[in-house]
Design goal:
Layout (H helix, E strand, L loop, with lengths): L1 H32 L1 H5 L1 H5 L14 H24 L4 H39 L10
Helix pairs in contact: 1-5
């Protein structure tokens, strides 16, 4: 009974691990596929950095410096976001590798639990009964 329970638990954990890996993979591929569209292009670079009510508290020189910095790094950020969808194939390989390592670890733990149950059962069966030697 303990063997069946340990293997049922191990296979349940493997199913949960597989579902979690698949879900994170699907979410990652979806985010990477839409990264170019999510970037907003050059229009997003000209957007306000903070709400209008906060402009009274921020020095105008700081605002101008941050706008200049964003204008300078904007093309680099845009180029990086446009290359992200091409990396989706690498995410697939990485997802399979991570799933495989987790599955091997879960399998090793299941085998370890099986061996531990066998050792404990054999140790229990070798122990003499408490009143067996008292008759002599």
């Amino acid at each position: 009974m303990l063997y069946a329970l340990s293997w049922f638990l191990s296979l349940g954990l493997l199913a949960f691990w597989s579902l979690a890996c698949w879900g994170l993979y699907a979410l990652t591929v979806w985010a990477m596929a839409g990264a170019g569209a999510l970037a907003g292009g050059g229009a997003a670079m000209g957007a306000a950095l903070w709400p209008a009510w906060a402009t009274a508290w921020i020095p105008p020189q700081l605002t101008a410096d941050l706008q200049a910095m964003l204008a300078a790094i904007g093309p680099m950020v845009q180029a990086a976001l446009e290359t992200v969808p091409m990396l989706a194939g690498a995410v697939s390989v990485l997802a399979w590798a991570i799933w495989g390592l987790g599955a091997l670890l879960l399998l090793a733990l299941a085998i370890g639990a099986h061996v531990l149950i066998a050792v404990l059962k054999s140790r229990k069966s070798r122990q003499p009964l408490p009143g067996a030697n008292a008759a002599h």
